UniProtKB/TrEMBL annotation, chain A:
InterPro entries per UniProt: AAA+_ATPase, ABC_transporter-like_ATP-bd, ABC_transporter-like_CS, ACT-like_dom_sf, MetN_ABC_transporter-like, NIL_domain, P-loop_NTPase
Keyword Signal tagged: no
Domain of life according to the entry: Bacteria
PROSITE patterns, alphabetized: ABC_TRANSPORTER_1, ABC_TRANSPORTER_2
Name under which the protein is recorded: D-methionine ABC transporter ATP-binding protein
Record keywords, A-Z: Amino-acid transport, ATP-binding, Cell membrane, Membrane, Nucleotide-binding, Translocase, Transport
UniProtKB/TrEMBL annotation, chain B:
Bilayer topology annotation: Multi-pass membrane protein
Localization: Cell membrane
Residue ranges of every copy of the ABC transmembrane type-1 domain listed in the record: 23-217
Spans traversing the lipid bilayer: 27-49, 61-86, 92-115, 155-178, 198-221
Keywords, alphabetical: Cell membrane, Membrane, Transmembrane, Transmembrane helix, Transport
GO biological process: D-methionine transmembrane transport
Pfam families on file: BPD_transp_1
PROSITE patterns, alphabetized: ABC_TM1
GO terms under cellular component: plasma membrane
Protein's name in the database: ABC transporter permease
Family, per entry: Belongs to the binding-protein-dependent transport system permease family.
Length: 365, 227
């Protein structure tokens, strides 16, 4: 049981080697000036994105996440601070160097942005038009990219003949045509249904693992972060409220916004709905408390709840429970009522805290 | 067949040599001035779309001047514009009359309208596509060629059709200034010499020309539209 959740060799290696960031935001701010004044889109952002990782940027709409990702390929320029991509300070690049950099960065968008008058093949060839390639090389490139995204044989189709998911696959193939070292995804799955979203995310992760391309993924869905990202940055009104490995953020979220995001992906988040709906399953008696426990130890087999009831004379009634794996590591949790004298409940909860369980008393009655 | 034509269009039959060369002249006027205007309108239309603030070739002042100049030219009725251009036309082409004299005023008369048609056509291209091309590291010129002009073909074909129909109309107006062509034929024979059948025949041929332009335009639009 335990070995299932042991950290992969890959992530161990990442921790051992000193790494240099492929993308670095150094105290970046961005202000938009318009007729009626200034609008601060990003404020004092610093972050390192490491080669080969999948870096998620999550926030509500208007948080500045799309602007942030557009700083990486120079669609937008920082007002203050410096964006450094592969060692190059973007503010010091001239127009031609900027274009050269952009050819090494692929980008996909929520709306796919395929050229409607071009076939799948011609869309994929678009970034290769300025490359010195023979006819055969181009054909081979298109064929291998189509195979990679699972659309072999569709090269003659026009975008309007494809489903949303297929269009996004073509967009991915097009973004990868130049063998980019960085792939930017701006809400790439936001317009897709859940099943298609999963398949597109799996594809992006497979490509990341196979080619080592660094992926920066902007989203408003925590499920996307949970599904594919290694690192995450939570943006709120242009500032970073939390940043770290996806696992650590899920285990120990500090910010209220982060917790809100996490609850959208967790079965335990449903307790709020139940409370709101005055569900009879959670009527809480005089000697009862409603608690939420979260444990992140790899050994989830220790029967903590049974130990607690036996040792402290409390009764525990589990309402919801959940266990999931993030980046191959487990996070478990449950929502329960605990019944007993106030002192007993307090000692029981202390016992759990000593076992590294995060304890939250949801509602006193 | 010939009898019926001779009965209904006696003067057209009488002056058939001139009538046929009028058709040819109109076709040449429209073809040559349309082709010249297409090139200049594509350039002006692209500039109108790309030079506003935040555009691909942002030059807001240039944009305002250009837009204003186009509005001024468009507000002058064509017959007055063509008359006012006579000295310039003569200086440029050596003639103010006939085919040679007709083409320059037609180009000046239709280009502002055509440029606005091109502008409207290019505005239909979503800014997402421009951003995507930019993110591929394309130069502005390549974005114009590969996205604006290429993806805009269906809308450009619609605008060109509308413009060509207007241009056929203008070419007939310039007939009253001695340009030759069907307008000239209809005015000199049909109007001034009361040969109504000459006017009627000119109208029928012009209708056929407009129908042909619309037909070709529709084929191009249908073949290129992928939405």
């Amino acid at each position: 049981m335990t070995h299932l959740f042991s950290p992969s060799l890959d992530s161990e290696r990442k921790h051992d080697e000193p790494r240099e960031a492929i993308i670095r935001f150094d105290k970046v701010s961005k202000t938009f000036r318009s007729g009626d004044g200034e609008h601060a889109a990003l404020h004092d952002i610093s972050a390192d994105i490491f080669p080969g990782s999948i870096f998620g940027i999550i926030g509500l709409s208007g948080a500045g996440k799309s602007t942030l990702v557009r700083l990486i390929n120079g669609i937008e320029q920082a007002t203050l601070g410096e964006v450094i991509v592969e060692g190059q300070k973007l503010s010091q690049l001239n127009a031609r160097q900027g274009r050269k950099l952009r050819t090494t960065i692929g980008m996909i968008f929520q709306s796919c942005n395929l050229m409607p008058s071009r076939t799948v093949r011609d869309n994929i060839l678009l970034p290769l038009q300025d490359k010195d390639l023979s006819r055969e090389e181009r054909e081979q490139r298109v064929d291998s990219l189509l195979e990679l995204v699972g659309l072999s044989g569709r090269e003659r189709a026009y975008p309007n003949e494809l489903s949303g998911g297929q269009q996004q696959r073509v967009a991915i193939a097009r973004a990868l045509a130049n063998n980019p070292r960085i792939l930017l995804c701006d809400e790439a799955t936001s317009a897709l249904d859940p099943a298609t979203t999963t398949s597109i995310l799996d594809l992006i992760r497979t490509i990341n693992r196979n080619t080592g391309v660094t992926v920066v993924m902007v989203t408003h869905q925590m499920s996307v972060i949970k599904h594919v990202c290694d690192e995450v940055m939570v943006l709120d009104h242009g500032t970073v409220v939390e940043q770290g490995s996806v696992y650590s953020i899920f285990v120990n979220p500090h910010d209220a916004l982060t917790r809100t995001f996490i609850e959208t992906t967790s079965n335990l988040g449903r307790i709020n709905d139940l409370i709101h709906a005055d569900n009879p399953a959670i009527t809480i008696g005089k000697r009862q408390r409603l608690i939420r426990l979260q444990y992140s130890k790899e050994d989830v087999s220790e029967p903590l709840v049974s130990l607690m009831t036996a040792r402290f004379g409390v009764l525990v009634n589990i309402l919801l429970s959940d266990i999931e794996s993030i980046g191959g590591r487990p996070i478990g949790g449950l929502v329960a009522t605990i019944e007993g004298s106030a002192e007993n409940i307090e000692s029981a909860l202390d016992f759990l805290r000593k076992k590294d369980v995060r304890v939250e008393v949801i509602e006193h009655v | 067949m010939f009898d019926i034509v001779a009965r209904w269009f006696p003067h057209v039959v009488e002056y058939r040599g001139e009538f046929i060369s009028s058709i040819w002249e109109t076709a040449v006027m429209v073809g040559v001035s349309g082709a010249i205007s297409l090139v200049s309108s594509l350039i002006l239309g692209v500039l109108l779309v790309t030079t506003p603030k935040g555009g691909l070739l942002a030059a807001p002042l240039c944009n305002r001047v250009l837009s204003y100049a186009i509005n001024v030219l468009r507000s002058v009725p064509f017959i007055i514009l063509a008359a006012a251009l006579v000295p310039l036309t003569r200086a440029l082409t050596g003639a103010a009359l006939g085919l040679r004299g007709a083409i320059f005023p037609l180009v000046v008369g239709i280009t502002p309208f055509f440029a606005r048609q091109v502008e409207a056509a290019l505005m239909t291209i979503p800014s997402n596509l421009i951003e995507t091309a930019y993110s591929m590291g394309f130069t502005p010129w390549k974005i114009i060629r590969r996205v604006y002009l290429r993806e805009g073909i269906p809308a450009l074909a619609k605008g060109t059709t509308i413009t060509m129909v207007s241009l056929i109309g203008l070419s007939a107006i310039s007939g009253s200034l001695g340009s030759g062509g069907l307008g000239d034929f209809a005015i000199r024979y049909g109007y001034q010499r009361f040969m109504f059948d000459a006017t009627l025949a000119s109208v029928i041929v012009l209708l056929c020309m407009v129908g042909f332009v619309e037909f070709v335009g529709k084929i191009v639009v249908d073949a290129t539209t992928r939405q």
